[in-house]
Amino acid sequence: MAPHVVPVRTYAAVFGTLLVLTYLTVQIALIDLGPLNTIAALGIATLKAILVVLFFMHVRYGTNLTRLVLASGVYWWLILVSLTLADYWSRSWRTYG
Questions:
Q1: In this predicted model, what pLDDT tens digit does every residue of 47-72 receive, in sequence order?
Q2: What is the DSSP letter of 84?
Q3: Cα separations in angstroms, 46 against 6, 7, 28, 35
Q4: Which helix (H) or strand (E) holds 59?
Q5: Per-residue confidence of the chain (97 residues) as pLDDT tens digits?
Q6: What contacts 54, CB < 8 A, 6 or more positions away?
Q7: List of residues 6+ apart from 45 with CB closer than 8 A
Q8: How far apart are CA 48 and CA 51, in angstroms?
Q9: What whole-number distance in Å separates Cα of residue 77 and Cα of residue 49?
Q10: Helices in 31-63 by DSSP H: which ranges?
Q11: What distances in angstroms separate CA 68 from CA 50, 59, 72, 73, one per listed residue?
């Protein structure tokens, strides 16, 4: 199976998009949005991570095995985050005294 050749134009477009998203992250950090600052920063970071994984790590053009490995990694990450959040949210249930 021959490797998929991605045009330089695609890499340049993704790189430009990453630069714009980085600039947007900095600009949003300078604006006081209250608790929405974190949500906006994480949303932009997620978009940047998706672009990097799809294009620079070649998942978009990869095999089904590559997608399975990625999906299992995301699934494991979701388990870890849910357990961490369950611990964090349940801390207020405990009474001290």
A1: 999 999 999 998 998 899 999 999 99
A2: H
A3: 23, 24, 15, 17
A4: none
A5: 677 888 999 999 999 999 999 999 999 999 999 989 999 999 999 999 999 999 999 899 889 999 999 999 999 999 999 999 998 888 876 666 5
A6: 60
A7: 25
A8: 5
A9: 14
A10: 36-51
A11: 16, 10, 6, 9
Whose tokens are 């994480």? That residue is: 42
Name which of 41, 38, 36 is nearest 26 in CA terms.
41
Evaluate the CA torsion angle 26, 29, 33, 36 in order and state its sign. positive
Question: With 0-12 CB in 10 A as exposed, 13-18 as middle and 19+ as buried, what is 3?
Answer: exposed
SS3 assignment, position 46: helix
Token pair belonging to 36: 């929405």
Could you say which DSSP state residue 97 is in?
A: -
